[in-house]
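Margin note from the TA: students keep mixing up input and output lines. Inputs are the sequences; the output is the structure of the whole complex. Example:
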Amino acid sequence: MLLAFRRRTELMFPVLFLLVVVSLFPLGIGPSPQLLARIAPGVIWIAALLATVISLDALFRTDFEDGTLEQFVISGHPLTLITLAKTVAHWLVASLPIILLSPLLAIWMNLPMESRGVMMMTLALGTPILSLIGSIGVGLTVSLKRGGQLLSLLVFPLYVPILIIATAAMMAASDGLPYAQFLGLLLAGLILSLTLAPFAAAAALKISLS
Amino acid sequence: MSHIPFILAAYFIAAVVLFWCAMAPLVRKKSIARDIRRLTQIEDIPRDSDA
Amino acid sequence: MNMKTSRKTKPRKNPLLMFIHKMGSPPWFYQFSGKLIPWFWLIFAVLATWALYLGLFKAPADYLQGESVRIMYLHVPAAWMSMLIYSLMAVMGFIALVWRIRMMEILAIASAPIGAAFTIVTLASGSLWGRPTWGTYWVWDARLTSELVLLFLYLGVIGLYKSIDEPRKAARAACLLAIVGAVNLPIIHFSVKWWNTLHQGSSISLLGGSSIDASMLWPLLIMAVATKFYYGANLLTRARVSLLEQDKRKSWVREAIMEQD
């Protein structure tokens, strides 16, 4: 994580990407407040997906290129813990800014006030899942030249349930309907991926670096 | 609206896709076989010249 | 020096285990599967023709949907195969990774394009079935959307395999991806199904949920069995070709190729 802070300007790219992508939607669709409000949950979450995948690839790839990744694999320390640590670092560095910026995105997309709290909760619960599942994809593609592009293809189908549940929570909140069950599902997903993903990511790294 | 063109189109697409899927490995096999024959020829020549 | 006479035979020779063991050896697999393939094609051809005859000519049109229901005899078996093949691919991938069995790697990877083909057929036939029934070529109903995600999963496995140069490493990576996808598939399936009801009020299904008449059930089931034989024939063919390619320099491949001439 300290390494990530050394290249602070590079950290800004995914964040800027997030802002630019979200602002493209009103430009492409028209500024009608009602329309934006209807698509806001999806737009914000899709932008979060894209930004996460970009930053994920960048973070692991620099380690691969300078050989530290190989050192991790050889080192004899449990690779599962190492991948978990790296994923947590990624989340803190890349996804936390997304969560902190989300109120701004909510204002841009005219997200109803009732959903804004829920939005932050879905992002807080969901983005770690994105990082965890993404770490498996990164483990598989880190040694490839066009790995970044392939990574998005591999990982987006797996993100579908998170997207569906998170946006459902936000839409329920906008309509004044109960949303706790969705957050519960996200929490369950988080616990599940927290326990399973690091093993798969470690296995992926071992294969990639073999 | 007659349904028949849709039925025909669906079965036609299926036939094309599944036929291609069945043929693709055989096409690959032909080129691999050619490569292997070329390899054996190249490697047999020095042996023949010794005999 | 400790000379141990190796005991190659177990006290009780289990023929099934010996068969499985033999199939792990590429030359044996090549020979044996070569004999099976023509039979599989034959059975597929017979069953498929029979199913098509029953489905296209003898079964009645649907009360509500009219003639377009005949697409069902294609769409449903293709959908079943697309899901079955993914499960098999994931299981074979698991065996390949855990026990490091090369034949399993090859079989798992060879399954991916076949599964993708069936998924494409499912999507195309579903779309063409939807047009006369619902009025549009594409509807985000639960099944079609799930199939689309499934297609992306297949393409991911194939894409990952093709992007790594070394065949065994590529196979292992793709197998891991297949397993991860398989674990996620039920979750994806349920979330899509639920998402569909959320946005359309009631779950619309091409089949309508009504019980199927026997005259319609038979062509469906026969076609379903036929597709299994297609998969078997195609899978073994692809596996054999992969073996030839990977073992190009080995003598058994040379002999096999020469034998064919």
